[in-house]
Amino acid sequence: MSTSTDSTKPSSSNKEWPLWEVFVRSKAGLDHKHCGSLHAADATMAIQLARDVYTRRQEGVSIWVVPSSAIIASDPAQKDIYFDPMADKVYRHPSFYELPAAVDHM
Questions:
Q1: Would residue 16 count as lying in a domain?
Q2: Total tally of structural domains belonging to the chain
Q3: pLDDT tens, 9-23?
Q4: N or C: which end of the chain has fewer CB atoms below 10 A?
Q5: Euclidean distance between CA atoms 100 and 106, whole angstroms
């Protein structure tokens, strides 16, 4: 788990440790949720720091850390390309019927 790649090592011009994204699963069977970021020298240190920072009150059963440089995201300025085609597919949303009062909490 302590393997690190060149993308996780600080460059000679930047002496700051790389940034890691932290995901915690609160209970077995649930999804990991992004809970924050931290700087660490390597993956092992990132897991240890994430445990100390994000699960101090025993709210986690699993931690994932990912180098921020490894995450690829869509550009919010180009959201139309990715998300606008979904707007015309109203049949995918359960909005054509009313819920009974017994299940109105949904």
A1: yes
A2: 1
A3: 555 456 899 999 999
A4: C
A5: 10
> Cα-flanking dihedrals φ and ψ of residue 92, to 5°?
-80, -10
Residue labelled with tokens 């709210």 = 59
| C-beta atoms surrounding 3 within 10 Å | 8
Phi, psi angles (nearest 5°) of residue 59: -90, 10
Residue 64 lies in a domain: yes
Residue type present at position 95: S
- In this prediction the pTM is 0.63
The CA distance from 8 to 22, in Å, is: 15
Q: Whole domain around residue 59: which residue ranges? A: 6-103
- Angle among Cα 63, 33, 75 to the nearest 5 degrees reads 120
Gap between the Cα atoms of 15 and 31, Å rounded:
34
